Every structure is written in structure tokens, then in C-alpha cells.
UniProtKB/TrEMBL annotation:
It comes from Craspedostauros australis. It is an enzyme of class 5 (isomerase). Residues 159-254 form the PPIase FKBP-type domain. Residues 69-94 are annotated as: Disordered. Keywords: Isomerase, Rotamase. It catalyses: [protein]-peptidylproline (omega=180) = [protein]-peptidylproline (omega=0). This is peptidylprolyl isomerase. Its EC number is 5.2.1.8. Gene3D superfamilies: 3.10.50.40.
Amino acid sequence: MYHTSQECHFPFNTRMKTSTAIVKNRSVSCKFGEKASMIPFFLAVLVVSQWNSAAAFQPQQHQRQQQRLANERSESLQLQLTSDNKESVTPVNPSRRSFLSRTATIGTACATAASSFLLVPPTPAYAASGAGDLKFVQSPSGLEWADAKVGSGAVKQTGEIAAVDYVMSTSGARYGAKIYSTADKNAPYRWTLGDGSTIAGLEQAVVGGDGIEPMRPGGIRRVIIPGNLAYASLGKQGNADECQVGKGVGPIPPTGDAFEEYQRFKNIYCNPNRPYQPDLVMDIKLYGKRAN
């Protein structure tokens, strides 16, 4: 700390004398004299006070900046491929461009650990490029598919119950592609094959047909589903009531603890004011008779 000295005058009709005012560790020496103004003294007090306020604010501002940077680093997307075939994801709300750049390496990771569940990427253009060793094939219906892992055992037949974990995404989204994951909630999606409760694209991905190989238990497959095999009916005017679990074709994110995911899904696939529906991207893991 240091001291500054400033001469000022008080309007007292007295002999000249000196007094010292201590203002937040800085001394201001003032002379009392006749018919002088107090304004310079008050200005000195104000300047010194403001200087101290600014000096006290700077460390707080620095702390806030450091905390914000730490939060941004901790919110970066982290994918951990684990031995029990489950994903651990800390999502953030990235821009679409940064999201695509981060997911570009996921396919390569799956090539070396194919038993691990996939995380969504991107767009049909990315899929068509075969990036990350996933070789996509397009069926006559327009559905594109690629296997990260081929399962084993008997294929599912119409009338049987299918259980899958999935990561639902979209090929077009402003704030990132991922919509919902059953793996995050430990709640596999189940339905009876052929009962009409599930979108045609997901059912076709499991049972096969139209040039698509059927999945086998333990298999992991990524599919890109066009609107006519997904949620085109939900996006029509007057069908808003069907955009709920149990009322329209599934899978639909639940409205309970996944409310934000449900709203994201609704805004994209149940919105009659949207000029078009982007393709649906799903990573599917098929279970056998028992699902975790």
C-alpha cells in the first residue's frame, strides 16, 4: 500500500492549519482556509474510493472467469467405452459443427471395441462417406444401415417380443444431434414385432427384409431412417395428441424424468409447422430373451 497527498481547502474563517483525512489506507493532506471550496476534497475522496472498489472487483472477476473456463472444460463431450457394453456420456449443448468434429472418431473406436454401444453422429452425408469403418448400405425403401457388431443366435420373428437399447438422434438439429438414449436411463425399449406400435424403420432394422439383413442378439446396428419409415404421421396437423408414449407409434421419449428430451423430440418430429422432418438416426443394440 502507498499514500497519496492532495492539497484541498475548507471554507472556515480560521488560521491556516493542516489536517489529514485517512480514506481507505490513503492519506489526503488538507489545509483549512478562508472562503475555499470543499469540492476538491470530496472529489479526492470519491476518486480514492472508486479506485479501491475497482481493485477489489478485479480478483472477483478473475475468479469468475477461471470458474467459467473450468465449467466449459468439464462440460466437454466425454465418451467412455466400457467392458460391460454401456456408454458413459457427459453431454453439453454443442454447436452442430463442433458436435460433428467430436463424433468423427467414434466409428474408429467402435471398430476396436465393437461390443460397446454407439453414440450418435451426424448426417447422411457422414454415413455415406463410410467414416469410421462403418459401411452403410441403402435399401430400396431408403433406409440406410451398417453393423458395428454382428450378433449371434436366432433372429427375431413376427409375434415375438423384441428388446433394444437405442440412442436416438437426428440428421438435422441446431443444438446437437442427440435426442434420447434408453441406455442413459437403463430402460430398454420393448414391443411385440408386427403389432404396429413401433415405427417401420426400427422394426425393419431388427427383423430385416427389403435387402436388409436381420439383427441377431448382441448385435449393434446404426440406421438412418427416412421420414416415411419414422414419424411422418406425427408431424401432420391434428396429430399432436399422438405424440405421447402409448398413443402414437414408438419409440417416443417419456415425459417424466426425460422431459427435456421429449420436448426436443416433439419440436423436431411432432411439429406441423416444420417444413420438413430430418432423417432419424438410431443406434440399436438388440438383446436376447432377457434384457438388462
